[in-house]
Write a structure and sequence with these properties.
Oligomer: heterodimer
Cofactor (chain A): thiamine diphosphate
Number of helices of chain A: 17
GO molecular function, one term (chain A): pyruvate dehydrogenase (acetyl-transferring) activity
CATH topology of the largest domain in chain B: Rossmann fold
Main location (chain A): mitochondrion
Number of strands of chain B: 12
CATH class of the largest domain in chain B: Alpha Beta
Radius of gyration of chain B: 23 Å
Strand content of chain B: 5-15%
Largest interface: A-B, 43 and 50 residues
Structural class of chain B: alpha/beta
CATH class of the largest domain in chain A: Alpha Beta
CATH architecture of the largest domain in chain A: 3-Layer(aba) Sandwich
Number of strands of chain A: 14
Number of domains of chain A: 2
Distance between the termini of chain A: 34 Å
Structural class of chain A: alpha/beta
Helix content of chain A: 25-40%
Largest sheet of chain B: 6 strands, mixed
EC number (chain A): 1.2.4.1
Catalytic activity (chain A): N(6)-[(R)-lipoyl]-L-lysyl-[protein] + pyruvate + H(+) = N(6)-[(R)-S(8)-acetyldihydrolipoyl]-L-lysyl-[protein] + CO2
Radius of gyration of chain A: 23 Å
Shape of chain A: globular
Chain lengths: ~450, ~450
C-alpha cells in the first residue's frame, strides 16, 4: 500500500485540516493499520509535521505544554517557527511516547525541568543579576520603554526604572564610550548593541578603551563590562546586517568572547559574563531567541553560572569530532542524527566560548575520533574554524588525525537578500553531512 | 658648578640630539636662558628684584591684562594667612586680590568672578606645581634626545596653568580624564615624578610598570592618558554617569584638544550628557594647533566654547592660573548643582611641537613662540604677580627652583637606572581576577604564563 512508513504518515498529515485533530489522530485511531511509527526517526517526524526539510533540534518534555502566550511572534514566519518548535518538542520524544502508550504506561514521573526560550533565559539572567548587584545596569537602544528591540529586556524597565535601564540615542560610539567610562569608574554596565553590525561603529571603544586598558595600566584600571547583542545572520536582513563578528573580537587579547547556543548556555554564560571583572563580548543569535529548550532544575537557580572558557560535548561519538558554536550546534546535532542512521557516530562539541578557546576539549576529542570538522556561520578566511585547525596542528592532536581537518563555513560573500541565495550562503545540514562523509572518505 | 655642568650637558644634548638640523642658535640660547634666568637674580626678563619695604607696586609690564589692585595687609579673619617663614621675612603680604580676565560666556547669564584671591601659600603651591611640571617636561625632552625615552612623548610645557588651575579648583575625590598630553595631569593627580619618568623610560618602577608608556598612566580618579583622539570624551561622560548613579556629588573633568574638538563622538557625548544632565566639565585645551594644523585650517568654527551648542560654555585665559581656577570652580559648582554639563575652552599655548618628533616650527614661527614665552608664560605671570605684591621673595622662588630641579634630577636618575620589567611580566595583567592562563608566544613551543 505504501512504499514506506514515512509516506504513510506524510499522506495522513496532508489530508488533515485543523491543528489539534490530526495531532491525536494517528495515535488513537490507526494503531492497528499503520506501520509502526517507531521505524521513523525523529527527523522524519519533524519533516512530516513541519512540512519542511529543515530541522531544528530542541530538547523538552512533550507532556509540558508550551505557554504560547509568552512567545511574541514578529512575523508569520516566526509564528510558524514557534508553532513548529512546540510540535517538535512534542515529537522529539514521540517515539518514546508512542512506545509508552503501546505499553500503556501512563504513569511516568516527570523531571522537574522547564521549557524556556533563549530570550527568556537571557531576560532571567539579566533580571537576577540586576537584583543581585546594584552596580549592574543596562543601556542600549530601545532597551527600556520598548522592552528591547528583540524583547530580550522585556519587563526590566518596569521593574528597575530609568536609573538601571537606560534608553540611549542612536549613537553607538558615544554610548559605548559612556558605558566603558562607567565601568572604569566602578559600575558594571551591560551595553547592548541592537546587532553586532552596529558595534563596528563603536569598535574603537570596545578594543582600545575596554580590552587593552587592564594591560596598559598593569592592573591599575579594570573594565568590568558586558557587550551583548545578536550576532551573525538573521532572516532576510541582507549584507549590512548579517555579519558574524566572532573572529573579529576573538582576535583581540584582553577580551573574552562568548557564544551561547541554548537557553541554559545563554543564562549561565550571561550571568558569568556579568559577574566577570573583564570586558566580555556576548554574541547571541536572533534566530535562536524564540527557540525553547529544556532547562534543568539546577539551571533555574539564581546562582547558576557556566564557566567562561569551557566547551561542552553535546553528543558523544567515535568517528568524527564536530566543533561548532551558537546556532550551528543545532545543525550539527541534526546532521549527527542523520549520520547515525548510516552508522557514523559524530561527537558534537559546543564551544560556548570563542576566547579563550577550550583547545583541550577539542584535542581530547580529536585524539579519540581522529577526524575533525568545524562548523560556523562566519566567513572562512581568518575565521573561528581556521583558528581551530591551526591550534590542532600545533598540538598533540595533529598526530591523531587520519585526514586533514575540514571547515564548514558561510560562503565568502556579503549576505544576499533573496531567500534562495541567503539559504545557500550559510551552512546547511546537507553541507555538514557531505563534509563529514568527505572527511571520513565514505 | 653643578648648574654649569647641567647647562653644558643640555647644550651638548641639543647639539647631538635628533633635531639638530631644526634648531638654531637662538633656540639654543632660549633654552639656556631658561636655566640662566632661574638661577641668577639679575636677569632682565624678570620684573622684580629684591625684597623691598611695602610701597605702592608698579604696574607690571609683563601682565598687561591683570592690573594689580591692592596689596593690603590681612584684613580677613582667615586663619593661616599669616605665614611664618623659616627666614625672617615676616612682612610678606599674606593675601592679595587680582583682577583677572573676564570670560566670554555662551548660554550663561554670568560667568566666573573677575577678581581672584590668592594667598601666599596658594601662590607658592601653584608655583611649585607649575615649575615641577615644566622641569619634568624639559627633563623628558632631554631624555628623549638622549634616546632614553622612545616612542611617543607629547610635552606639556607652556600649558602648566591649566593643570595647576584645574587641580586647585576640584577635590581629589573628583575625577579627571585627558588625552595623550597627560604628564602634567598625571603629576597633579598625585603620581610621583620618578614614577612618571620611569614609565616614560619603560622601567618597572613606572606607574604602569613600564607597560603603558607616555600615554597610558593611571592613578586613583585619574583615567589617563588616552591615545585615540577624542575617545576619552565619551569615557569622561561615562565616568560622570557613574558619579550621578552613585549620588556622590563628584564631577568628572574631561579634557580634549582643539584637534579633537571636531570628532563626532564628542557631539554624541555632549548630547547624552545634556540629555541626562551628567556632572561633566568638558574642557577644550585650545593650544592653537592640532598637531601641525592651525585651528583656522581645521575648524569651521573656532569658538570651541560654543561648540557644545545647547551646553553652556566659557572661554578662559588658559595662561593665567587664577583665571583657570576661578572658571573651573564656577564650572564645578554648575555641575554639582545638577544643572548638567558645561564646556570650557582654555586658550593656552605649547612651546614644544606636537610631540618629540615634531620640531614645532614648520607650521608656526619662532617669533610667535618667543612672544608667548616672553609675554604670557604662566609661571612668570604668577611669579611677577606675587613679587610685585610682595607676597614672596626672589630668593624663595630661587630656593624652590633649586629644590625642584634637584628633585627632577633625582627622578631622572631613578628613571634611567631602574631595571626594565622582567620578561616574566610580559603576559600578566590581561584579565583581572582570573586563574592563571597560558598565552601563546611567538611560536608554538613558546607557551607563556599570564597571571591576573
Amino acid at each position: 500500500m505504501y512504499c514506506s512508513s514515512w509516506q504513510f504518515w506524510s499522506s495522513l498529515h496532508k489530508g488533515s485540516s485543523g491543528r489539534c485533530p490530526w495531532l491525536l489522530f494517528p495515535f488513537f485511531t490507526l494503531w492497528l493499520f499503520a506501520p509502526p511509527p517507531s521505524q521513523l526517526s525523529r527527523c522524519d517526524w519533524l519533516c512530516v509535521m513541519t512540512r519542511s526539510d529543515r530541522v531544528v533540534n530542541c530538547s523538552c518534555d512533550w507532556l509540558k505544554s508550551l505557554d504560547l502566550s509568552r512567545v511574541t511572534a514578529f512575523s508569520p514566519a516566526e509564528d510558524r517557527f514557534n508553532m513548529a518548535a512546540s510540535l517538535r518538542c512534542f515529537l522529539r520524544t514521540g517515539k518514546n511516547a508512542v512506545s509508552a502508550l503501546q505499553r500503556r504506561e501512563f504513569h511516568r514521573s516527570l523531571p522537574a525541568a522547564v521549557q524556556v526560550t533563549v530570550r527568556d533565559a537571557l531576560n532571567q539572567a539579566m533580571d537576577e543579576e540586576l537584583e543581585r548587584d546594584e552596580r549592574v545596569f543596562l543601556l542600549g537602544e530601545e532597551v527600556a520603554q520598548y522592552d528591547g528591540a528583540y524583547k530580550v529586556s522585556r519587563g526590566l524597565w518596569k521593574k528597575y526604572g530609568d536609573k538601571r535601564i537606560i534608553d540611549t540615542p542612536i549613537t553607538e560610539m558615544g554610548f559605548t564610550g559612556i558605558a566603558v567610562g562607567a565601568a572604569m569608574a566602578g559600575l558594571r554596565p551591560i551595553c547592548e548593541f541592537m546587532t553586532f553590525n552596529f558595534s563596528m561603529q563603536a569598535i574603537d571603544q570596545v578594543i582600545n578603551s575596554a580590552a587593552k586598558t587592564y594591560y596598559m595600566s598593569a592592573g591599575l584600571q579594570s573594565v568590568p563590562i558586558v557587550f551583548r547583542g545578536p550576532n551573525g545572520a538573521s532572516a532576510g536582513v541582507a549584507a549590512q546586517h548579517s555579519q558574524c563578528f566572532a573572529a573579529w573580537y576573538g582576535h583581540c587579547p584582553g577580551l573574552k568572547v562568548v557564544s551561547p547556543w541554548n537557553a541554559e548556555d545563554a543564562k549561565g554564560l550571561l550571568k558569568s559574563a556579568i559577574r566577570d571583572d573583564n570586558p566580555v563580548v556576548f554574541l547571541e543569535n536572533e534566530l535562536m531567541y524564540g527557540v525553547p529548550f529544556e532547562m534543568s532544575e539546577e539551571s533555574q537557580s539564581k546562582d547558576f553560572t557556566i564557566p567562561i572558557g569551557k566547551a561542552k560535548v553535546e553528543r558523544q561519538g567515535t568517528h568524527v569530532t564536530m566543533v561548532t558554536h551558537s546556532r550551528y550546534v543545532s545543525h550539527c546535532l541534526d546532521a549527527a542524527a542523520v549520520l547515525a542512521k548510516e552508522g557514523i557516530e559524530c561527537e558534537v562539541i559546543n564551544l560556548r566560548t570563542i576566547r579563550p578557546l577550550d583547545v583541550d576539549c577539542i584535542e581530547t576529542s580529536v585524539m579519540k575520533t581522529n577526524h575533525l570538522v568545524t562548523v560556523e556561520g562566519g566567513w572562512p578566511q581568518f575565521g573561528v574554524g581556521a583558528e581551530i585547525c591551526a591550534r590542532v596542528m600545533e598540538g598533540p592532536a595533529f598526530n591523531y588525525l587520519d585526514a586533514p581537518a575540514t571547515r564548514v563555513t558561510g560562503v565568502d560573500i556579503p549576505m544576499p537578500y533573496a531567500k534562495i541565495l541567503e539559504d545557500n550562503s550559510l551552512p546547511q545540514i546537507k553541507d555538514i553531512i557531505f563534509s563529514v562523509k568527505k572527511t571520513l572518505n565514505v | 658648578m653643578q648648574n654649569m655642568l647641567t647647562i653644558i650637558s643640555n647644550a651638548l644634548c641639543r647639539i647631538t640630539g635628533r633635531n639638530v638640523g631644526a634648531q638654531t642658535v637662538s633656540e639654543l640660547l632660549i633654552d639656556l636662558s631658561e636655566y640662566v634666568s632661574l638661577t641668577s637674580p639679575a636677569a632682565p626678563v624678570l620684573a622684580q628684584t629684591e625684597r623691598q619695604p611695602p610701597k605702592p607696586p608698579p604696574v607690571s609690564t609683563r601682565a598687561p591684562a591683570a592690573e594689580l589692585v591692592s596689596s593690603q595687609t590681612d584684613q580677613l579673619d582667615r586663619p593661616g594667612s599669616r605665614v611664618v617663614v623659616s627666614r625672617s621675612f615676616a612682612d610678606f603680604t599674606p593675601q592679595a586680590t587680582f583682577d583677572i580676565k573676564k570670560c566670554d560666556v555662551h548660554r550663561l547669564e554670568e560667568g566666573p568672578p573677575v577678581k581672584a584671591t590668592l594667598t601666599r601659600d596658594q601662590g607658592l603651591q601653584y608655583y611649585r606645581i607649575m615649575q615641577t611640571v615644566r622641569r619634568m617636561e624639559l627633563k623628558a625632552d632631554q631624555l628623549y634626545k638622549q634616546k632614553i625615552i622612545r616612542g611617543f612623548c607629547h610635552l606639556y610645557d607652556g600649558q602648566e596653568a591649566c593643570a595647576a588651575g584645574i587641580e586647585a579648583a576640584i577635590n581629589p575625590s573628583d575625577h579627571l580624564i585627558t588625552a595623550y598630553r597627560a604628564h602634567g595631569y598625571t603629576y597633579t593627580r598625585g603620581v610621583a615624578i620618578k614614577e612618571i619618568l620611569a614609565e616614560l623610560t619603560g622601567r618597572k618602577g613606572g606607574v604602569a610598570k613600564g607597560k603603558g608608556g607616555s600615554m597610558h598612566m593611571y592613578a586613583p580618579h585619574f583615567y589617563g592618558g588616552n591615545g585615540i583622539v577624542g575617545a576619552q570624551v565619551p569615557l569622561g561622560a561615562g565616568i560622570a554617569l557613574a558619579c550621578q548613579y552613585q549620588g556622590n556629588n563628584q564631577v568628572c573633568v574631561t579634557l580634549y584638544g582643539d584637534g579633537a574638538a571636531n570628532q563626532g563622538q564628542l557631539f554624541e557625548a555632549f548630547n547624552m550628557a545634556a540629555l541626562w544632565k551628567l556632572p561633566c566639565i568638558f574642557i577644550c585645551e585650545n593650544n592653537k594647533y592640532g598637531m601641525g594644523t592651525s585651528v583656522e585650517r581645521a575648524s569651521a568654527s573656532t569658538d570651541y566654547y560654543k561648540r557644545g551648542d545647547f551646553i553652556p560654555g566659557l572661554r578662559v585665559d588658559g595662561m593665567d592660573v587664577l583665571c583657570v581656577r576661578e572658571a573651573t570652580q564656577f564650572a564645578a559648582d554648575h555641575c554639582r548643582s545638577g544643572k548638567g554639563p558645561i564646556v570650557m575652552e582654555l586658550q593656552t599655548y605649547r612651546y614644544h611641537g606636537h610631540s618629540m618628533s615634531d620640531p614645532g616650527v614648520s607650521y608656526r614661527t619662532r617669533e610667535e613662540i618667543q612672544e608667548v614665552r616672553s609675554k604670557s608664560d604662566p609661571i612668570s605671570l604668577l611669579k611677577d604677580r606675587m613679587l610685585s605684591n610682595n607676597m614672596a621673595a626672589v630668593e624663595e622662588f630661587k630656593e624652590i627652583d633649586i629644590a625642584i630641579r634637584k628633585e627632577v634630577e633625582e627622578a631622572a636618575q631613578y628613571a634611567t637606572s631602574d631595571p626594565e620589567p622582567p620578561l616574566e611580566e610580559l603576559c600578566n595583567h590581561i584579565f583581572k581576577n582570573d586563574p592563571p592562563l597560558e598565552v601563546r608566544g611567538t611560536h608554538p613551543w613558546a607557551t607563556l604564563k599570564s597571571v591576573s
